[in-house]
Specification:
The structure holds two protein chains of two kinds.
Chain A (H helix, E strand, L loop, with lengths): L1 H32 L21 H9 L2 H32 L5 H11 L5 H13 L6 H5 L6 H11 L4 H9 L4 H30 L2 H6 L8 H11 L4 H21 L1 H12 L3
Helix pairs in contact in A: 1-12, 2-12, 3-7, 3-9, 7-9, 9-13, 11-12
Chain B lengths: L1 H33 L5 H5 L10 H7 L2 H33 L3 H16 L2 H11 L6 H8 L14 H26 L3 H9 L4 H28 L4 H6 L11 H11 L3 H29 L3
Helix pairs in contact in B: 1-13, 3-13, 4-8, 4-10, 4-12, 5-8, 8-10, 10-13, 12-13
Amino acid sequence: MRRSRRAAFIQIALLCLLAGFALFPLLWMVSVSLMQPGEASRFPPPLLPAEPGLSAYRALFETTGIGRYFLNSLFVATLGTLLSLLFNATAGYAFAKLRFKGRDRIFQLLLAALVIPAQVTMLPLFLMLKELGLINTFAGVLVPVTASIFGIFLVRQYAMSIPDELLEAARVDGAGEGRIFLQIVVPALTPILITLALFTFLGAWNDFMWPLIVLVDQDLYTLPVALAALSREHVQDNELMMAGSVLTILPVLLLFLVLQRYYMQGVMAGSVKG
Amino acid sequence: MRRASRAGWAFAGPALFMLGLFFFVPVALAFALSLTDFDLYALADLGNLRFVGFGNYAELFGTPLFWKALGNTLYFVIVGVPLSIGLSLGAAVLLNGGIRRLSGLFRTALFAPVVTTLVAVAVIWRYLLHTRYGMVNYALAQLGIEPVDWLGDPNWSMPAIILLAVWKNFGYNMVILLAGLQTIPADLYEAATIDGASRWQRFRHVTIPSLAPMLLLVSILTMAGYFQLFAEPYVMTQGGPVESTVSVLYFMYEQGFKWWNLGVASAVAFILFVIMFVITMIQLRIARVRGAI
C-alpha cells in the first residue's frame, strides 16, 4: 500500500496549503491589529508584532466611536433575528401543516419569486420607506430582514416531518391553535429555528448595501457601513483598520464556530431549494 | 376545516403581508419607476414626474459607462464563477478522500471565510494587495516577480477582486459538493478501478456525471451571487482605476443614490434581473439537453 500512503500525504499537504490560503488573511488581520502604530506600513511586511499591544484598539474606540457602531450592529442583528423567527416560524408551520385556501398556489408563487434579486426592490422600497418616514431609522434597515422566502421555506421543509396525529390529538383534547404552536410545534422545530436565527443574525450583521442606502446619520451606522467609511478616511492606518475588521468579523466567526452544525443544515437546505 | 383555514391565515398572514408590502409591491413598482424620469426634482415634488416609456432603457444603451459596467460584471462572473466552483470541487474531493479524523477540522478552516463580513475582508485584502508593503507582492518578490500594482492598474484590478471573491466563497459550494460526493456509491469506483480506469478517468467518468445535477445547482446559485458584485469595488477601488471595476450594481447605486436618478437606476436593476434570468434559463436548458436533470 505504498502508493496510497503517498497519495494520503499529498492529499494532506494540499489540504494544508488550502487551509493556509483560507486562514492566512484572517490570522494576519489579528496579528497586524496587535502591532504598534505604523509598524505594518513597512517592507518587508512583518508577520508578527514586535511588541504586541492594544494601542490600535484603544485608538479605534477613542477616535472613531466604533463602540457605538458595534452596539448598532448588535441591536439591528438581534432584533432582526427575533422578528424573523416570529414571522417565518409561524408562516413556515402554516405552509407545512395548516390547510388554508390557496396555500399551495401561494407557496409556488413564493418559490418562483426566489429568482428576483433583492436589488430590484431597493429603489422603490427606498421611496416607500421615505413616505413612511423610515429612512435613516433602524426600522428601515430591518424591513427586508423580517419575513423572507428562504426563511419560510427552511421552516416549512422541517415542519413537514411533524406527525399530523400529534396535532390532531391536541386539537381533540381541546387545545387552541396558539397553544399547539407554542407547546408542540416550537419545541419540535427548535433545531431549524436555531439555523434560521443563525442565518438571519449573520446576514443582518454582514449586510452592507441596504444599510448603506437607508442610514444617513453617522450615529446610526452599522459596523460594515462604518468600516467602509473609515477605510476611505484612514487609508494609511493599517493597524487601526485591522482592529476594526477584527471587531467586525470576530463575533460572527465565533457564533459560527459554536453553532456550526446548525449552520451547515441551512447550507444544505438552501442547496435543495432549486 | 374552517378552523384550520382561519388558523392558517392567522399564522401565514403576517409574513405574507410583509412580503407583499415590502417585496412584491416594490418589484411591481420597480418596473413602473423604470418608465419614468424620477430624479431629484421628482423627489422634491411628485408633480415633476413624467412618464418616459422606455426612454431610460434607450438612454442606458447609449451610455458608455453602462456598457463598461456590464462588461466588467460579465468579466467578473465568467472568470470568477468557474474558478470558484473549480476550487470548491477540488477542495471537496480532497476532503472526501480517506483521512476521516482531520477532515472536520479542515472543513471548518476552509469554510471560515464564508461567514466573515464582506466589507471587513475587502479591507483586509486591500491591505494584502498593497503595492508597496502588501504581503502578496512580498511573496511574489520571493519568487523573483516584480511588484504588481493590483488595485491601481486597470488590468489587475478585476483579477484582484476575483481573487478576493474566490477566497471568500469557495467554502460554501465545497460543503454542498462534499455532501454530493458522499452519496456516490463506492461500488461505482470499484467497478471503474477493476475496468482499469485511472484516477483521472474515475474522476471524469464517475465523479463528474454523478455530481452533475449538484454542479448545475451550484453554478446557478453562484452566478446569481456573482452578478451582485458591489461591496468589493465600493471598498477596494471605488470603481477605479479608470472605471475598470464599476459593476452593474455599483453603477446602479451611483445613479440612484448619488445622482438621484431613480428612474434610470430602476431600469439598470431590471436589466440586471433580465440578464440573470435569461442566463439561468440557458443553464437549465443546457442541463436538460445533456440529461443532467
